[in-house]
Amino acid sequence: MSGVIYWLDMAGVIVFALSGVILACRSRMDPFGMLVLAAVTGIGGGTLRDLVLGVRPVFWVTDPTYLWVILATVGVSLVGFHYIHRLSRGFLPVADAFGLALFTVIGTHKALLLGTSGVVAVLMGMMTGVAGGMIRDVLAQRVPMVLREEIYATAAMAGGIVYVALQALEVPLTFAIAASLSVTLGLRLAAIHWHLALPVFAWVTVPPKTHDEAAAPLSTPQKAKERVRMIRRERTRR
């Protein structure tokens, strides 16, 4: 199963790198900008995970194949630029959803192998799936997907919980991986399609009047109300 995990990791790098290339094209970046966005998206989350878990050196230093995969993804994208340019707006979030599901499983699995608790493993899986996309969006001057209203990090957390729970029950690894992928990907795609979101809690405030609004002439009903207030204030003073 170590080979399956490795190839899933490579698939996640390719998908996330491609999402970085697509966003770079839409942001009118040059090839170097495409490479930067592809790299931070493909290996950014895993790098942060390894640093937090104390893994030295990080995974792509010990195995430079990840870097070559990113370079190949960018190279193929440059050759097929016109095809990428014609992709619909919905392709980026869908590709990002697949990368999120794959990296969530990889991050959770690696954290468990290092002997962390289930809670930490879930957080590491979410970090692996979310952090690279956050860095990508920030560099492209966009609001990161994880900070938008649609369900994103919650989907990764749910997938990580499913994986940890099934591993605790000693379910076969293949089934645990498939279940975690299905939960994360299903929740994210459902959120994209139906615009599902968590409830938002916010204070309701009344904005103060601007200078123009305060200086605007009052209408007849407003004048009458203001006249009544003045009369009441005069009576109170007396």
Q: Which descriptors apply to this entry?
A:
75% helix; cell membrane; mainly alpha; Gly_transporter; 11 helices; transmembrane helix; 238 residues
Q: Label the overall shape.
A: globular
Kindly estimate the percentage of residues that lie in beta strands according to DSSP: under 5%
Number of helices: 11
Order of SSEs, N→C?
HHHHHHHHHHH
Structural class: mainly alpha
State the separation between the terminal residues, measured CA to CA: 90 Å
Low-confidence stretches: none
Helical content class: over 70%
Q: How many strands, which pairing sense, and closed or not: the largest β-sheet?
A: none
Total strands: 0
Radius of gyration of CA atoms, rounded to a whole number: 26 Å
The averaged pLDDT comes out at: 87
Keywords: Cell membrane, Membrane, Transmembrane, Transmembrane helix
Subcellular location: Cell membrane
Organism: Vreelandella lionensis
Protein name: Trimeric intracellular cation channel family protein
How would you describe the overall organization of this protein?
The chain is mainly α and 238 residues long. 75% of the residues lie in helices and 0% in strands. The chain is built from eleven helices and no strands. It has helices at residues 2-26, 31-53, 59-62, 65-79, 81-85, 91-113, 118-139, 153-168, 173-194, 211-215, 220-237. α1 (2-26) crosses α2 (31-53) and α2 (31-53) runs antiparallel to α7 (118-139). The N and C termini lie far apart (90 Å). The model has no long low-confidence stretch (mean pLDDT 87).
